[in-house]
Automatic annotation (TrEMBL):
PANTHER family (alphabetical): RIBONUCLEASE H2 SUBUNIT A, RIBONUCLEASE HII
Protein name as catalogued: Ribonuclease HII
Any GO MF annotation of the entry: RNA binding
InterPro entries, per database record: RNase_HII, RNase_HII/HIII, RNase_HII/HIII_dom, RNaseH-like_sf, RNaseH_sf
GO BP field: DNA replication, removal of RNA primer; mismatch repair
Binding locations of a divalent metal cation: 80-81, 172
EC number of this enzyme: 3.1.26.4
Pfam families: RNase_HII
Record's function text: Endonuclease that specifically degrades the RNA of RNA-DNA hybrids.
UniProt cofactor(s): Mn(2+); Mg(2+)
Family that this chain belongs to: Belongs to the RNase HII family.
Length: 258
């Protein structure tokens, strides 16, 4: 590698090199005293340092999964739901089985991610996961059962749709999934502590958002594309002015009707 290469050519090399190779490449260029090269080294060293921090965060996110793997549980599924609180639309749950020591950079609690990042990770999770199951329970069933039982139903549907039967479930929150003969661990705030639950939270969130975006096309007067059915001021005003549409949860909205 020629240390007298142009600054631009060095930048092109740094852009294309893998993170694993980056430290060695940076070391080779450190003796180049040109300010442009030194600036590149500083910039890419920061990128590498951030990469190492992210790797360590992902390693920590695998702690719960690795704990169960070490105890002989081969197939661990993370489960999470989205949509318990909205005034309209379904509750959606996802169950995700990831490979051991899975490393998906950027994965996190779906609430901490931008919509575009969630969409990006949604595709990556589908590529990396061993199996994914999704359960969707409609507003009418939520009204019939209550939201907790409807959430359990969505989780069970997601579990049944997995192509592989897990031998351990790790579930976000503090409610054990009833009538399921598989060992379970509940983790409060699990979508920020477990990589499998984080993956499930992203799958469930993107799936539900897409459903609500489609409902916006049917009922644009409620602006579902903006609030996804949650009880924003504008949503409540629309209910008071126009009444309910077919995807509203009657049990959640009676207080807003005249």
């Amino acid at each position: 590698m020629d240390p007298k290469s142009s600054v631009k050519s060095i930048e092109n090399i740094l852009k294309e090199v893998s993170y694993e190779e980056l430290p060695n490449i940076l070391e080779k260029f450190k003796s180049d005293s040109r300010q442009g090269v030194q600036n590149l080294i500083k910039r890419y060293q920061k990128k590498y340092d951030a990469y190492v921090i992210e790797l360590n965060r992902i390693k920590k996110l695998n702690t719960y999964e690795n704990n169960w793997h070490s105890k002989g549980y081969e197939v661990v599924a993370g489960i999470d739901e989205v949509g318990r609180g909205p005034l309209a639309g379904p509750v959606v749950a996802a169950a995700v089985i990831l490979p051991k020591d899975c490393c998906i950079l950027g994965i996190n609690d779906s609430k901490k991610l931008t919509p575009s990042k969630r969409e990006e990770l949604f595709d990556i999770i589908h590529e990396e996961a061993i199996s994914i199951g999704i359960g969707i329970v409609d507003p009418q069933t939520i009204d019939e059962l209550n939201i907790l039982q409807a959430t359990f139903k969505a989780m069970k549907i997601a579990l049944e749709k997995l192509e592989i039967v897990p031998d351990m479930l790790i579930i976000d929150g503090n409610n054990t999934l009833p009538d399921v003969p598989i060992p379970q661990q509940n983790i409060v705030g699990g979508d920020g502590k477990s990589i499998s639950i984080a993956a499930a939270s992203i799958i469930a969130k993107v799936t539900r958002d897409r459903i609500m975006n489609a409902y916006h096309e049917l009922y644009p007067e409620y602006d579902f594309i903006k609030h996804k059915g949650y009880g924003t001021e504008n949503h409540i005003k629309a209910i008071q002015q126009r009444g309910l549409c077919p995807i509203h949860r009657r049990s959640f909205t009676q207080n807003f009707l005249q």
